[in-house]
């Protein structure tokens, strides 16, 4: 007999405003204990130094994590010129110094080269795997590792404030897997100096933003009270950017049994923004998200079951 999972079956998303000084895993474990939830994961790692939006997936919500992580992310970070750190942020040890302090005009002129489709080398202290080991584990063990550059998409990189000659504050919009610490490091180097991140805040991850976030302290103070559960958003919140297609009960049952369905009966109810040539749709039945489906060759193919047919 398989062992029954410990904890309560809670499905959905919690948007936590992560405090500085904790890892994303620390937050996941604290929330899981507090809610006594069976299953909790996160939708995109934040560094211990960072604050801001950390979406947590509960139960069936974990099935939608990849779609959240693929969403646009917004950040604000402060770069301090003059010191390189081995972690590329203030938590690391100083590895180099420079007296060069760039002017605003030079900074703005350097930003386009780090915007758009770029190649980026992750920080030494990152979760990137090298021959099966996490880069940060190798770095802590004193192992010298050369990380390969990876494609990254930076949609916006703007200088928004210059508090003093030593620091500059930037706004960034980016895709999946872009490291703000690497952006800061590479920008400083391109300006003939060195630098590191001293403050970092994530403002948005896909459909999740500050307006819907709750502080970790507040959530933990509620324990297993009903007020805590009222903060859990529906699973389909993570899929808000994916067009929704409603099915009948009979159609839903066939889809959940793995059948591809002809699109002909759906033509009148097909969302206008759905791409019939390979696009994803959020399949709805009985008012809840049933599955993710992909359109193609005149058919709706089941991709990921999110809940049972009603």
What features would you describe in this structure?
The protein has 310 residues and is α+β, with helices and mostly antiparallel strands. The protein is 19% helix and 35% strand. The chain has helices at residues 24-35, 65-69, 104-110, 135-140, 180-190, 216-222, 226-229, 249-256; strands at 12-18, 40-42, 51-58, 73-81, 83-85, 94-97, 116-120, 129-130, 133-134, 150-164, 167-174, 195-205, 208-209, 214-215, 244-246, 261-262, 280-285, 288-296, 299-305. The strands form 4 sheets. Strands 1, 2, 3, 4, 7, 10, 11, 12, 13 and 14 form a 10-stranded mixed beta sheet that branches. Helix 1 packs parallel to helix 6 (216-222). The protein is globular and about 70 Å long. The relative contact order is 0.17. The model has no long low-confidence stretch (mean pLDDT 90).
Write down how many β-strands occur, each being a DSSP E stretch of 2 or more residues: 19
**Proportion of residues in β-strands:** 25-35%
The coarse overall form would be globular
Rg for CA atoms = 22 Å
Helix content: 10-25%
On the 0 to 100 scale, the average pLDDT is 90
Question: Helix-strand pattern, N to C?
Answer: EHEEHEEEHEEEHEEHEEEHHEHEEEE
> What's the N-to-C terminus distance?
28 Å
Count of alpha/pi helices: 8
Structural class: alpha+beta
Low-confidence segments, given as residue ranges, are none
Major beta-sheet overview: 10 strands, mixed
């Amino acid at each position: 007999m398989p062992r029954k999972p410990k904890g309560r079956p809670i499905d959905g998303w919690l948007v936590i405003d992560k405090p500085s000084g904790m890892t994303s895993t620390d937050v996941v474990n604290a929330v899981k204990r507090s809610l006594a939830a069976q299953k909790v994961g996160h939708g995109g790692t934040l560094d211990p130094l960072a604050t801001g939006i950390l979406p947590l997936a509960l139960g069936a919500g974990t099935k939608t994590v990849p779609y959240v992580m693929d969403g646009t992310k917004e950040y604000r970070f402060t770069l301090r010129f003059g010191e390189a750190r081995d972690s590329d942020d203030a938590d690391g040890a100083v590895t180099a110094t420079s007296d060069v302090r760039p002017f605003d005009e030079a900074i703005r002129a350097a930003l386009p080269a780090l915007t758009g489709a770029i190649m980026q080398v992750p920080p030494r202290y990152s979760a990137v795997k090298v021959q099966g080991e996490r880069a940060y584990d190798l770095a802590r063990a004193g192992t010298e590792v050369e990380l390969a550059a990876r494609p990254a998409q930076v949609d916006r990189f703007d200088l928004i404030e210059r508090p003093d000659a030593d620091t500059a504050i930037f706004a960034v919009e980016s895709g999946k897997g872009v490291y703000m610490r690497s952006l800061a490091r590479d920008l400083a180097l391109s300006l003939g100096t060195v630098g590191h991140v001293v403050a970092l805040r994530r403002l948005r991850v896909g459909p999740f933003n500050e307006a819907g976030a709750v502080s970790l302290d507040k959530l933990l103070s509620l324990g297993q009270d009903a007020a805590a559960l009222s903060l859990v958003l529906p699973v389909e919140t993570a899929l808000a950017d994916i067009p929704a297609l409603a099915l009948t009960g009979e159609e839903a049952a066939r889809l959940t049994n793995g059948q591809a369905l002809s699109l002909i009966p759906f033509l009148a109810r097909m969302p206008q923004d759905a791409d019939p040539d390979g696009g994803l749709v959020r399949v709805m039945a009985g008012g809840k998200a049933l599955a993710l489906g992909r359109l193609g060759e005149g058919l709706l193919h089941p991709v990921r079951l999110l809940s049972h047919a009603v």
